[in-house]
Amino acid sequence: MAVISVEKLSEHVGVAVLDVDVERLRSDEDLPAACLTALEEHGVLLFRGLGLDAPAQAEFCGRLGTLARMPRYPIPEVMQISFDPDNPNAEYFRSNDRWHLDGCLDAAPPPKAGVLTAQVVAAQGGETEFASTYSAYENLSAAEKEHFAALRVVHTFEAVQRHSYPDPTPAQLAEWDRRPARTHPLVWGQRSGRHSLVIGATTSHVIGMEPGEGRALLDELVQRTTTPDRVLRHAWSVGDMVIWDNRGLLHRACEFDRAQPRVMNRTTLLGDEPIQLVAEPVGAGRPS
Ligand SMILES: [Fe+2]
After folding, report:
1. Which residue among 17, 124, 165, 252 is least crowded, i.e. fewest CB within 10 A of its CB?
2. What's the 282 CA to ligand 1 centre distance in angstroms?
3. Burial, 240: exposed, middle or buried (Cβ in 10 Å; 0-12, 13-18, 19+)?
4. Does the residue 280 lie in any domain?
5. What pTM, to 2 d.p., does this model score?
6. Could you tell me if residue 281 is inside a domain?
């Protein structure tokens, strides 16, 4: 089993991997397993200045797990994130500046992990921030854990898009409505025994709660998860690669001038663990 040397990036989340260069990335057969173990422990892995191109990124990430494929990109495993008008998904990246987990609106389980490499960085801003909802869950009181174990939350595409388009046209609303809403437990009890909170920009409302009260709770949980002392902000240099655990880390892109180029290559490790409360938190009842 390979061992990797790491250095903490912040108190609650993230490490830089110190002893992996492109040659080791390519040739160390045990490295993927070591990376996945470190990812489970630290939430975010930063590899500085690797300089992977898209084929190399797809090759390495394919050794970490099964990758999502997006047929509209030249290498389907590598999605280009940019606001270039030619980018087939440019419109959908607008809300990336809100805290979110990926995949809460999909029928399939959310991705296990996301991987970004910096191809072109913004002159100012454009950092990516991460915050742990595992840690946020651990910080809840026993009474909150018990209460939240019973809550179910509706996630909608409209909730995401309204951040970017607060006054939608009927045509926009109809378009957003075509994507089905998903209902998830607020607390995700994972096979590992850990729990995370399923919160962020996709949340619409809490079932059974008065809408304003539910919204206030969801917003408060994001706020408590993302206080400045709990956030890892990564300022990109060209060539950096970051892997994050999408099952328990919120992420978002920081502001930058969207008229200027910024290009990130993105690969996604498919998940195999549905959002459910499979293990009861201590002292909590089963969700209805
Ligand atoms: Fe995302």
Report:
1. 124
2. 31
3. buried
4. no
5. 0.93
6. no
